[in-house]
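User: My notes are a mess, but here's the protein and adenosine-5'-triphosphate's SMILES. Can you give me a structure?
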Amino acid sequence: MTAIFKKIWNFSEEEQGNIKKSVIAGFFHALFNSLQFAAIYYMLVEIFSGTISYQAIFISFVILFVSLIGKILTQKISQMNQTHAGYFMAAHKRMEIGEKIKKVPMGFFSDYSLGRLTSIATTSLSLVEQWIPMLLVLVLGGTLNTLVFVAGIFIFNYKIGLIASLGVLVFFIVTSLMQKKSISNSSKIAKTQENLTKNVLSTIQGMQVIKSYNLDGENNEQLDKSIKDTSNLLLKLEKSLTPYTVIQRIVVGITIVAMIFVSVKLNIYGELVLAETIMMIMASFVIFEGLIGAGSNMAILRAAENAIDSVGFINEIHDMKEGSISTPIINYDIEFKNVSFSYDEREILKEVFCLIKEKSMTAIVGPSGSGKTTFCNLIARFWDVDSGEILIGGKNIKDYRIENLMDSISMVFQDVYLFEDTIENNIKFGNPNARKDEVIAAAKKAQCHDFIMGLQDQYQTIIGEGGTSLSGGEKQRISIARAIIKDAPIIMFDEATANIDPENEDKLKDAIESLTQDKTVIMIAHRLKTIRNADQILVLNKRRIVERGSHKTLMEHGGLYKDLMNAKYISESWKLTN
Ligand SMILES: Nc1ncnc2c1ncn2[C@@H]1O[C@H](COP(=O)(O)OP(=O)(O)OP(=O)(O)O)[C@@H](O)[C@H]1O
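Assistant: No problem, the inputs look usable. Here's the predicted complex:
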């Protein structure tokens, strides 16, 4: 039991002060609650002694009033501190998760499903936010409330005090057995809830595919199963705990009857006066109030403990080790020195050497799946190489601070993600401090100003999640504007072919020229024209750079490059004549 409190205490970190205040306020609430019995007792003594006076009524009224005001105030203070503690405990952890996932390699997201992270950031932390401080006050405050009453009863009569203590003790034993039962199920519940979140996410994200392939039933089967699993497990838990709650009620009932019986007997034998007997009878009904609240909440406290454990998973995430170089990079030559890289067991690059000169344009070509995107992702440290090293400006990229490295690189890929925010903010993502006129200038260079001005709210238009309300070409140009405003010295670009119609092609070409001027450019090139103009072409195939050089030399060489270009030429001319 104390282990749970310790865990919650450690978890609450900066919010410990507020939790302390909340529990102390809960304790005073218990004291003020018992004060009303003092007032009633005083009145009863006066009534039964036959000397009731206005003064006695007034004193009782004052005590009741103080009890009421005290209860309201302490409850308010306790609730305010609980809300503050709960909200900020969860908020700090959510921010910690956000910071952490910025520094993990992309492999993390394949190894640990999005469902697990989402479940932690939503379900688990919501449980922490809503329940933990409140449960602490209910459990600790409720227990204290009962202990204060039991102590009060002992003062009146130790015999009735003993009966009350015995009842409370048995109640505690039953509650701790109930807790043990709920421990065995709580980790299973967390797992099924993770599964449910994963399936809901996957259904929402893949809705377009589900609809277009009419997979409604098939996909829902999985979702239905995880919903059923979750509800079955929750029902099972509820059922398994029912006998304990029934026993708790029986213990309460027996203790109340025993206390009333003994109180009446002691009155008959003259050991208790009538006022004391009535007080004992009243006390027997309220003594368990706090404890029942505490007991039923202990099971939830266990679920909350489980939520804390699942949040603890973020401490196991190993972030990428970063270097200490934070000074601006002076030279942007990029060099691969004997680089090998695998996804799990599958080797994608093997002993790759290459030099990309500063302010040059390198085109990467190769068959689909040859590792062109991977090559770029390694430069940005989305993944770390298995062996060898990648240098920028003569220094291993691992020696730079990640922020410093990312400030130096812009990536524009085909799979553009836009946030559910205004167009202006989406562009400013490249430079949050940019002024409005800088945003407009970047949009003009990226050839997207005109279509933005045609939208109802222009730069303030909110785009749907993932940029759903824009066409592929429009999204691509916004991502170019984002990169222009970032003005990073290294640009990695996956040249779009699929999203661009002939009308937009020239606009996009101008946008790319604006973006890549005077930069070190690595282009996963698809268009013949781009490839031809590159200073250097790297041809990737079967894990290695198999050919390198200018378009002219590679065509003369007559290898894979020439085959690829011929195939490309045929397909491009086919497109034109079609
Ligand atoms: N996160 C990943 N986990 C495991 N394998 C991956 C991952 N990303 C890519 N791969 C695999 O690595 C290989 C190289 O992928 P990559 O995307 O780098 O190739 P590409 O040359 O850019 O392909 P394309 O021209 O089709 O875009 C592919 O076989 C791909 O299936």
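Residues 2-316 form a domain with the ABC transporter transmembrane region fold fold (CATH 1.20.1560.10).
User: Great, I'll file this with my notes.
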